[in-house]
Amino acid sequence: MRGVPNVTRADAVAAVRNPLAFIAARWTPEPRTVQRAAFAALAMSVVLVVTGGAVRLTGSGLGCPTWPECTNDSLTTTSAMGLHGAIEFGNRMLTYVLCAAVGWAIIAARSEKPRRRSLTRLGWAQFWIVMSNAILGGIVVLVGLNPYTVAAHFLLTTALITVAAVMWQRTREGDAAPRPLVGKAVQQLVWFLVVASALLITVGTVVTGAGPHAGDSSDVKRIPIDWETVSKLHAVFAWIVVTLTFALWFVLKAVDAPTGPLHRTRDLFVVLLAQGVVGYVQYFTHLPETLVGVHMFGSCLVWIGTLRVLLSLRERPSLTADLPGPSAESALTTA
Q: pTM score, two decimals?
């Protein structure tokens, strides 16, 4: 067995001053470890959306009526607060799990050799979004679940998912300049798809803010719009996104595009069809809580799928991919 090296006073001081550099000097993760860390951060972002939806759909939004404490006299939930308090407090605790996942992603990215500053920046961007969203979540509670703040809370989480998805993709790429795999016309079509998907999600938050699921059993303010009318507008945007996705798949087939964009467009189309079925069923069954929760999960998958289509339009090889010599050959044989 190998002995554990002694930690000197200088090591302890260095660890306190710059813990990331201290860890990076002593640990080099495998590329797959960095990829898994980035995926864990992305997965936890989606989990927070689902559990946040559970808080809302069970009427537990004010289970902890204040913030950052759960009550004026207790940091945690109490037995007198019942199930609603436990659900709301449990969702708050999951924020720490998300922070741990993001922290792991930052540490893994910082420790990778050679160092990739772009990955570290994406990790820190997630951290600051999480902190901002935690503060916004507290404001949501303090203003009594105002629907506009609730919508902003969800959209900021969508921003977190965006950065996490980009980081996950970048862990599987090199740092060379991106090379487009399709022409300008296809790229423009995909950007139309991205904008339409963003509008679809934004209008979806308005549907939620105007709909019957206020997040608490008390009299919570709603967005003063007829939610059925907004739901129909939401459906229009959904059909636009589906049409653009199908058109993109047709164009990619016509221009004999690489398999990457084709497969990701196909995956997005399947997710959209499933999401559409859930959306129509929940509309005609008067928004049962379970289906609304599934629909929220589906919205995350739609957005991630859209981003994956966008990111598949280019490739970024390793900076050393085109260099001749034995190192390049060994890299190819071990890949």
A: 0.89
